[in-house]
Design a protein that fits this description.
Structural class: alpha/beta
CATH architecture: 3-Layer(aba) Sandwich
Strand content: 15-25%
Strand order of the largest sheet: 1-4-3-2-5-6-8-7
Largest sheet: 8 strands, mixed
GO molecular function, one term: tRNA (guanine(46)-N7)-methyltransferase activity
Protein name: tRNA (guanine-N(7)-)-methyltransferase
Function: Catalyzes the formation of N(7)-methylguanine at position 46 (m7G46) in tRNA.
Pathway: tRNA modification; N(7)-methylguanine-tRNA biosynthesis
Catalytic activity: guanosine(46) in tRNA + S-adenosyl-L-methionine = N(7)-methylguanosine(46) in tRNA + S-adenosyl-L-homocysteine
CATH topology: Rossmann fold
CATH class: Alpha Beta
Bound molecules: S-adenosylmethionine
Amino acid sequence: MARSKQKKFADFDKSKYAFDYKNETQLKLLKEALAKWDSVVVELGCGKGAYTIALAEKNQDGLFLGVDIQGERLAFACKVAEDKKLSNCRFFRAPIQRIDEFLEPSSIDSIWLTFPDPFPRLRQAKRRLTSLGLLQKYKEILENEGIIHLKTDSFELANFTKEQIDKANYLKAITDICNVDSLPPDHEARLVQTDFEKKHRSKGATIYYLSARLIEDPAQ
Ligand SMILES: C[S@@+](CC[C@H](N)C(=O)[O-])C[C@H]1O[C@@H](n2cnc3c(N)ncnc32)[C@H](O)[C@@H]1O
C-alpha cells in the first residue's frame, strides 16, 4: 500500500466515527451504537460519504451509517463528519457481501445505493450490488416496509435492478426508473451530488433513480 494510502487508513482507524469489520471490539461498539437509535439508515458503497453526511445533516433524529471497503475513502468521510461535529453518522469498513453478518436482522429503515459499479459484463452480474443474492441479504437487515433506493448513471444497471426487484417477491417497486431531475426538488434522491454524480453529469449523463419497499406479505 502506498504511504499516503497507509496514512489515510491509519487516520480512519483512529477516528471515533470509524468501525472496521476486522476489529472485534469496534464491531461490538458499532452494534451498541446502532442499538441506541430508533431509526438507522445505511449507505452501501458510500465512498467519501457525501450522501451519508448530507442525510445525517438533514435528519437529526436518525443514525446514518456509511459502508465501504476502502479505508482511505472512509477516512475522508470521517474527517468531514468530525469537522462538522456530527453526532448521528458513523462509517463502517466492511464487504457489502457480508453485511447481514454485521447488522441485526430487521434493524435498518432504508438502504441507499449511490453510483455502485455497474459491472456491465454479463459474467460479472453477480457482483452488481442489486443482484438477487445481495437483495436477499438486504431483506434480512431491513425492517418491514424498509426501502431500498438506487441512484445510478447506468440505465442498464437501473433496468437490471428493476428486473431483480420484480423477481424478489419480498420487494415491491415504489418509484419506477426515472430521471432524478424529474423528481420534486425536495426529494431525498436530489439531496446532494456525490463526486461520482458530478463526474457523470459533467459528461452529460442522465442520472436515474428507482426505489422499492420490503413487504411482509407478497400478496400486497
Ligand atoms: C463508484 S464508487 C461510488 C462512491 C459513492 N457512493 C459516490 O457516489 O461518490 C463505488 C464505491 O463502492 C465501494 N464498493 C464496491 N463494492 C463494494 C463491496 N463489495 N463492499 C464494500 N464496498 C464496495 C467502492 O469501494 C467504492 O467506494
